[in-house]
Amino acid sequence: MPKILLVEDNEASADALARRLERRNFSVVIAPDGHQAVSLARSTQPDLVIMDLGLPGIDGWDATAIIKADVDTRHIPIIVLSAHAMPNDRHQALAAGGDDFDTKPVQFERLLEKIEMLLTTRGVSASASDI
At residue 127, does pLDDT exceed 70? Predict the structure, then answer.
């Protein structure tokens, strides 16, 4: 069962997305801020991170950059989520080390496709039949 670290400071949004992912056979760990995201990425070694940008403390851009700069976590793919629909947000998220970018509100099926593509690239089983 692939493990996803979901970084989201809105508790209701995090719970709703986590439940949907768990119904698709993912194990989900939730971090409500950038500090915990970095710590949990190191300690739980998830197969993938879904990173919100607007976080208290360390924001999603910085948390992404820290995770990608660490030799122990740089291999973990990160999908950056943003409520901002500015054209430069995608570029900034990828420049910080994100592997993919998506906007909020989350379009769940599109997010699943991105998760599957990134996990398959890493050799983690997440075929359409699994998710």
Answer: no
Range of the domain at 12: 3-121
Alpha-carbon span 40 to 21, nearest angstrom: 18
Percent of the chain with pLDDT over 90: 76
Please state, rounded to an integer, the average pLDDT across all residues of the chain: 91
In a domain, residue 59? The reply is yes
At 66, the amino acid letter reads I
Q: Which long-range contacts (CB under 8 A, 24 or more apart) does 57-64 make?
A: 57/33, 58/33, 58/34, 59/34, 60/7, 60/34, 60/93, 61/92, 61/93, 61/96, 62/34, 62/96, 63/7, 63/34, 63/35, 63/37, 63/38, 64/93, 64/96, 64/97, 64/98
Rounded Cα distance, 127 and 131, in Å: 6
Domain assignment present for residue 127? The answer is: no
Highest mean pLDDT (candidates 68-77, 88-97, 119-128): 68-77
